[in-house]
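Marked as duplicate of an earlier ticket. Keeping the data here for the record.
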Amino acid sequence: MLIVQIRDATPSDVAALGDLYRRSSLSNEGDREALLAHPGSLVFDAAPVREGRTRVATADGRIVGFASTRATASGLELDDLFVDPDWMRRGVATQLVDDVDAVARSRGVARVEVTANDHALAFYLQAGFSPGERIQTQFGAGTRMQLDVPG
């Protein structure tokens, strides 16, 4: 597994994050048609970066993935988890989830939640998330999942 460096995102990262977000989103054939039909969904929202809620993974001096979270009544919601298509399947997403877990633990948060689309379900299960209810999202069915953070 490739070891990446993980740090807080900065405003100077926004352009690279936007490019990575779009390329990663379109890399999954199952999502591509729906996303292209809603081009606004491919525009990266920089608010989590400005609010200090985004962590980036870097390797060889470039951003290869990122994760954004937000506080909720029950813990943290993992809103974004994206990896550069050229760096997928090298452990980047797993290391970002581990980082989210560490951030949650440092804040005394007991749970991380995410809505997983069907092609990401196996990854989240492997990363330790437990499946919950099926829900409908803007782009189809998803599964609510949770990761209990050890105290």
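See parent ticket for discussion. The CA atoms of residues 22 and 40 lie 11 Å apart.
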